[in-house]
């Protein structure tokens, strides 16, 4: 029987988790011995393994199961690509510079911080307590303080109006605001210069001449789109299909301060699913129709509310809350993936973007938001980019990025078509022959039908633009009804894009997995599922004495053959301490080799969360732990196969 | 019985291979619809899978089997790191600019091309045929032509001397050569400017102020070194251990023109193995001692020869050809890895760097060179970087990057130590007290022994630098013999670095795998081993008719459960054509589902190289193909379990 575990005996303690992650080198600030650089992190051994395991599962869950076409494209991108995609013009924030120190501030943040501080000062001066800053505000920005000065009512109203529509101001308008309201750098009280666009892409230059500007991609998506024709051909010319890519992207964030949640270099996993714009159904939609999801749609948000609803994906699509089956399919698949790797289902929701917050290329977007200590955080975006990207690249390069589809039923149309006796036309009208032809060829079907009628009567008269009248007879022109058959349909596919920020998912997963033992708050545990845990089994010999070596090697090699990643900890410390250290690393199982192992070939098996210990023959324990790691049995079932070990206290003390 | 296959019926045809790789989208020039950028490539679905499989095997072969610590570090690196590592100063080539067009040329290449052309012109003028360009030269550079002008003998001698020591000239010296010999841009006949260093790192800027220059890493190694202390702690403070990383690196090559063999952005896999400089033995060396390798050592090369020798790794280390066991261990493991993924053992050798060609950080280096259509190509470097990197970063940052080891036997030393009666010293000498102390403290052991002797006699006299004589008595100073015990040894580990260029390995593997069917040169085959083949099994239903759907799904799902990656090709073309197409993709096995499958639940199994076909029940065939892909049986063994299928001709015609 498995023991009960109380994982909520101690409230979540972020400081304790961060200390653990740093101490066990899940990740650490990059270039730390050089003082570090904001927004850049290195993953150490457990972080790298965790990330590699998440990626492996992602590849299996999305690429293999849905037969996607994997790509590995280039990060360093020539400027024209991002000029076309709109990133050079629009992937930017407005910045202002302190006129004396040269410090750079994000323009909208400056306006917000200064006006909010003045309003707070006004509250104070009027004897009203300023509203306490929210949890979010406390963490994300420096406290800007303004003197307790009372403001006239009309100024208060004006400030409030500015704040409410802050996202709508252009750079020059913000500059105007700064001058009008004397908004200064709160750190120095210096004036700031004119707002300038600061592009968030890292710029470089390709080749030795300096004449070929390039950018580091801020997303992997353009690499998919530029290869669309090759991908389509690889897929035998058919849609729907999807390309997928896992790789680094870069964003030169102004002032990143949120750990792995906002970084300048990150690993993304992106899918671009190409569909017929007239048919966004999905072949496997029925397999996910009954998946229940928590939704926060745009109408609710636009009404200023945040009430979520729970319904099946099928219901959401049927009711038109999620626009089409393909979007719905991916929303469900994203949720299945996140739960599989260990995200808490009660802290996951799908939020629809409001019209004014969508990226420049998107027509609809649902974010998988996961709740963590900073609030709800976008971890996966699922956007309908429509035909935007393929259209702009096609227009710029002159390359057709389209699907050509044989129509099952050709479209048959009939048209009136002019037929000329060119010889007679030239002979009769000489220089006017061309004019006449042009006039007739540009007529619409109604006019041609009228002309046909008149010609059937013997003649018709055309009026030239300079007012002359030219008589035309059936010898020169006949109008005939002809049949046309169109057997190919050509269209630019729409793109549905699920886009995963792996670092955000990884960090949030670590928060969801962290707890402390009821009896000792210092003993932190990461309850990572075996699927993603960096190490699956810890092998713990009682000591580093040579007599354990053959057994350690045997167990290690048998686990390797079973495809189970294990590590040996033969360090010179108690077994209990070694297990505690590996609880911090999220290692789900441990096996202990002691003198009984040498004598009887038995081994104990320990489960991380419950600290339960069972005992069995070495081969039996390996068989059980293999099934546990592969997820074919759970701990309850394992307990039925292996008797309890009665030396538990001695070892975990 | 398996059929014999003649893979050398047609000579290797690079054009045909390149057409295949392009057509089947193994890889393609990046940004192709924008005209492409030299040295940047995108991997399509088969190339991505092949790369992912090579990486998965690399991870298993090196990281898992040798318990290395995996890292995932940052690409965007602040400039000070590469200033310290020496890359800012030395990771560069000398460039010259055409004074009129601004075209950039590599300075040493300009000198070489122009002087060689003049020498050829001289030969021609003297009526001697110029030596035909070698294979390599034809491919790698544009033909530079000079008029057939006879040169004085002393000029010929001077040119030849310059060419022989071209690698020794500094930039200013090359500038001098250009002026003295009027060396001009051969494309335009314009003069060139002063040589300037062109650094091969891509430069950028981190953050919004433009004040933090950064570079894209040209290797992953520095990311390991900067994290050394954390890694050491993770490994419980012990060496040897290794860190490993797979990731992108960037080099802004001047004019890359060799396909995947010289690119500006590439995936590397690097190991940094940290060892005690006084003990470079390797725990598992005996496991590889008998591995036979082909060697080309530096002495042979320095004697102007290229004769290789074959010997075991054990012999090479014993004879001191390979400097130590750890280098030898990695040479053997590198070879095992390369052969496992399908590199032809007859086209692999290990070449030692000559003293003058080593990178600035290396003290010894062996390259795994693989032969391909361009000649012998460095695909893996295995360098002993000694303590270079850890030392320079430690010196720069003031952080100790050292190993502290408890000595088993403390080192005990005895020393003469001065002991002062400070009160008496101050009272007697006042202002000179400090001077006297300094003089005595800076004495070596021999001087202190002499002093001790004199003091035993009653007194000693010290001469100050300004010529005064000061008398010292035993009341003021005694010299005593004391015992010192050192129980910790501190050292900077040395680093052995195997560094893999995955793109070069991948391309060379494709060359080694390519051949054409004896009966039809148009039918190219890639004989990739199942281990790395993008798709392991092709499922081919006779047609896309619905009656095959349930079987296709069943086979597909059973293979997936067995962990075998398969694809279905139900395109509207003959089975033979579908197989031919998948021979080009390197798919080792194919199963055909036809009407017999529907009636009798049988399936045929086809082997790619022999085109043999066998038949069995669906479950039997799946069992056999699973073993084939996992490498537990070979095709001969499979043939014993499954009878031959007699419909071969009909299907492969």
Strand order of the largest sheet of chain A: 3-10-11-21-16-15-14-12-13
Distance N terminus to C terminus of chain A? 21 Å
Estimate nothing, just give the exact number of structural domains of chain A. 4
What is the helix content of chain A?
25-40%
Low-confidence stretches of chain A: 133-142, 648-653
Assembly of the depicted chains: homodimer
| The top level CATH class name of the largest domain in chain A | Alpha Beta
**Largest interface chains and counts:** A-B, 78 and 79 residues
CATH A-level architecture of the largest domain in chain A: 2-Layer Sandwich
Instruction: Calculate the mean pLDDT score of chain A and round it.
Output: 91
| Helix-strand category of chain A | alpha+beta
Number of beta-strand segments of chain A: 28
Rg over C-alpha atoms of chain A, rounded to the nearest angstrom: 34 Å
Shape of chain A: globular
Main beta sheet of chain A, described? 9 strands, mixed
Name the CATH superfamily assignment of the largest domain in chain A: Bira Bifunctional Protein, Domain 2
Count of runs of 4 or more consecutive helical residues of chain A: 25
- Strand coverage percent of chain A: 25-35%
* CATH fold call of the largest domain in chain A: BirA Bifunctional Protein, domain 2
Subcellular location (chains A, B): Cytoplasm
Family (chains A, B): Belongs to the class-II aminoacyl-tRNA synthetase family.
Domain Aminoacyl-transfer RNA synthetases class-II family profile (chains A, B): 173-534
Organism (chains A, B): Panaeolus cyanescens
């Amino acid at each position: 029987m498995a023991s009960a575990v109380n994982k909520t005996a101690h409230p979540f303690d972020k400081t304790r988790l961060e200390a653990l992650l740093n101490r066990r080198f899940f990740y650490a600030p990059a270039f730390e011995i050089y003082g570090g650089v904001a927004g850049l992190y290195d993953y150490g051994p457990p972080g790298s393994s965790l990330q590699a395991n998440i990626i492996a599962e992602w590849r299996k869950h999305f690429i293999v199961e849905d037969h996607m076409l994997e790509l590995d494209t280039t990060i360093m991108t020539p400027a024209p690509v991002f000029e076309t995609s709109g990133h050079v013009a629009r992937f930017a924030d407005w910045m202002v510079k302190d006129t004396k120190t040269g410090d750079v501030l994000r323009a909208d943040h400056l306006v917000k911080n200064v006006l909010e501080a003045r309003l707070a000062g006004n509250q104070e001066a009027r004897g009203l307590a300023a509203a306490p800053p929210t949890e979010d505000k406390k963490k994300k920005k420096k406290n800007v303080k303004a003197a307790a000065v009372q403001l006239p009512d009309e100024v208060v109203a004006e400030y409030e109006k500015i704040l409410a529509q802050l996202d709508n101001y252009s750079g020059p308008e913000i500059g105007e605001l700064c001058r009008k309201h004397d908004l200064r750098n709160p750190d120095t009280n210096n004036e700031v210069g004119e707002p300038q666009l600061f592009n968030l892409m890292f710029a470089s230059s390709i080749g030795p001449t300096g004449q070929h500007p390039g950018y580091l991609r801020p997303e992997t998506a353009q690499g998919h789109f530029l290869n669309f024709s090759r991908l389509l051909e690889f897929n035998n010319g058919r849609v729907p299909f999807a390309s997928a890519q896992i790789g680094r992207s870069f964003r030169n964030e102004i002032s990143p301060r949120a750990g792995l949640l906002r970084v300048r270099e990150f690993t993304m996993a992106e899918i671009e699913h190409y569909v017929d714009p007239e048919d966004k159904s999905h072949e496997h939609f029925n397999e996910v129709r009954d998946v229940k999801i928590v939704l926060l749609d745009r109408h609710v948000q636009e009404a200023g509310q945040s009430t979520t609803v729970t319904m099946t994906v099928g219901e959401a699509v049927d009711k038109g809350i999620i626009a089409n089956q393909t979007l719905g399919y991916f929303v469900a698949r994203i949720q299945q993936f996140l739960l599989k790797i260990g995200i808490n289902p009660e802290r996951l929701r799908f939020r629809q973007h409001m019209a004014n917050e969508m990226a420049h290329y998107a027509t609809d977007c649902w974010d998988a938001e996961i709740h963590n200590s900073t609030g709800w955080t976008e971890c996966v975006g699922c956007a309908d980019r429509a035909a935007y990207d393929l259209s702009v690249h096609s227009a710029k390069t002159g390359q057709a990025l389209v699907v050509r589809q044989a129509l099952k039923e050709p479209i048959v149309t009939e048209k009136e078509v002019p037929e000329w006796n060119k010889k007679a036309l030239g002979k009769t009208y000489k220089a006017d022959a061309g004019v006449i032809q042009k006039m007739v060829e540009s007529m619409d079907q109604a006019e041609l039908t009228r002309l046909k009628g008149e010609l059937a009567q013997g003649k018709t008269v055309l009026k030239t633009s300079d007012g002359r009248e030219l008589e035309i007879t059936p010898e020169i022109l006949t109008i005939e009804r002809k049949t046309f058959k169109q057997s190919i349909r050509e269209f630019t596919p729409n793109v549905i894009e699920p886009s995963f920020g792996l670092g955000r998912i990884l960090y949030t997963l670590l928060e969801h997995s962290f707890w402390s033992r009821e009896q000792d708050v210092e003993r932190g545990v990461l309850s990572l599922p075996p699927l993603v845990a960096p190490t699956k089994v810890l092998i713990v010999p009682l000591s580093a004495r040579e007599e354990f070596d053959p057994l350690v090697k045997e167990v290690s090699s048998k686990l390797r053959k079973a495809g189970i990643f294990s590590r040996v900890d033969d360090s010179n410390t108690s077994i209990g301490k070694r297990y505690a250290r590996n609880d911090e690393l999220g290692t789900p199982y441990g096996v202990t080799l002691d003198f009984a192992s040498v004598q009887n070939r038995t081994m104990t098996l320990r489960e991380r969360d419950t600290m339960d210990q069972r005992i069995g023959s070495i081969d039996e324990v390996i068989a059980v732990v293999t099934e546990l790691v592969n997820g074919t049995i759970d701990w309850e079932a394992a307990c039925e196969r292996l008797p309890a070990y009665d030396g538990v206290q001695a070892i975990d003390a």
